[in-house]
Amino acid sequence: MKLVTSEYRTISRISGPLLFLERVRGGRVGEMADVRLRSGEIKKGQVLQLMEGTAVIQVLEGTAGIDAEDSSVYLSGEVAKTGLSMDMLGRTFNGIGEPIDGLPPVIPEMRLDINGLPINPVAREKPSHFIQTGISAIDGLNTLVRGQKLPIFSGSGLPANELALQILTQAQAPGSTGDEGEGRFSIVFGAMGITAREAMFFRKGFEESGAIGRTTTFINLADDPTIERLFTPRISLTMAEYLAFEKGHHVLVILTDMTNYADALREIGSAREEIPGRRGYPGYMYTDLATIYERAGRIKGKKGSITLIPILTMPEDDITHPVPDLSGYITEGQVVLNRQMHRKGIYPPIDVLPCLSRLMNLGIGSGKTREDHRGVADQLYAFYARGRDARKLIAIIGEEGLSGLDKKYLRFADEFEKRFVSQEGEDRSISRTLDIGWKLLSMIPKTEFTRIKEEFITGHYSRGD
């Protein structure tokens, strides 16, 4: 039972989703509050700031209908917590953890603080297990490892949602089991500021793929209160921590769209009259994003893991925008979607050259993927970069001015995008991905190979032209 410790009728002003409460005694930052309207309606809130007896409270359902003179505020004495249970798998909730799938509320097994804590670096276990997404451009060249943080940088109109759904429904961690015991592979999906159409797209995709039974979904729609978007990723990660570190599951978390989250953070900062930083975002946004991203990983002595794929939209496709820029500093690489490739009909339109997985070497090789994996990836990168350079030369000297070898690289780049990167609706194993890579590499003479051991070239190279 929740204990109400303090009641106040001292609301001085309301600004956007915030209300300012005067003469507060003994409150604390993060404490939950109930705002009781004259009509009897109760809205949930949280203390954001305390300064000289004034409390700034963010109201989760918005401040519409709140009268400063006739409304009361009750401080609960508790931080924001959410109830957790294994029964939440297969269920859909709103951004603050309330069920929206028409089923009864979940009876919680435990309640945890949604803010959690970043994993202590000393307690972190080194990621070392490969996760197969079925996407060649990721598995082959930017491998995802259990416990990693690997964001997807998208742009307006690019198929980031389709790619997210494909990863969610295809992802598998070798060595994970399908029963209720330790090692089970589960999914947590958190959406912030998406449309009802997008929400239906994900829901339908989960149902058709059969993945819904191992997925917990938290959805904040575009017309839901903005303040709710600050809670959605934290509740999603709290559920993931429960599954991973209490139940021993391997959990894949996808959060979309982190740009909407950052915009909500900017809106709240403006209402609090904070001094803005780059492009109006709060100066503490780096720290705030880190409190989310750093909750992913593995813990020594725990069998579970949390792997995080945040998806964010780059305004005007600008990778130097504060949200992707800061996310890139915190996370361990990035997967970048390209508009020109999308226009050419390539799906997924992943531009592999600016992509990076800093933990790739920990999850590949003999006993994990294949012993030739690192060499194939490096050589594909090198040949594709040469092919892209050949495309630029055509604009200057024309294709007739290219040497015979440059024309081979040009053809390699085209075939690489068509046969390796593009894979509409196809779920590829890592072996299939590497075999396609070898077929493409065989388009180039052996004398050009500089990144693969001779023993692998002898075993896999075949004349490709």
Question: Keyphrases for this structure?
Answer:
465 residues; alpha/beta; Elongation Factor Tu (Ef-tu), domain 3; 31% helix; Rossmann fold; seven-stranded antiparallel sheet; eight-stranded mixed sheet
**What Rg, in angstroms, do the CA atoms define?**
25 Å
CATH C-level class of the largest domain = Alpha Beta
Secondary-structure class: alpha/beta
Q: Roughly what fraction of the amino acids lie in strands?
A: 15-25%
Please count the helical segments: 12
Q: Low-confidence stretches at least 5 residues in length (pLDDT < 50)?
A: none
As laid out across the biggest beta sheet, the strand order is: 9-15-14-16-17-13-18-19
Could you describe the 3D structure shown?
- With 465 residues, this protein is of the alpha/beta class.
- It folds into three domains: 6-78, Elongation Factor Tu (Ef-tu), domain 3; 82-361, Rossmann fold; 373-460, no CATH class.
- The protein has helices at 136-139, 160-170, 196-209, 232-246, 258-271, 285-293, 322-330, 339-343, 373-397, 404-421, 430-441, 454-460; strands spanning 6-8, 11-15, 18-21, 31-36, 42-51, 54-59, 72-79, 81-84, 92-94, 110-113, 130-131, 144-145, 152-154, 185-194, 215-221, 250-256, 305-313, 333-336, 356-357.
- The protein has an eight-stranded mixed sheet with strand order 9-15-14-16-17-13-18-19, sandwiched between helices.
- Helix 2 runs parallel beside helix 3 (196-209) and helix 9 crosses helix 10 (404-421).
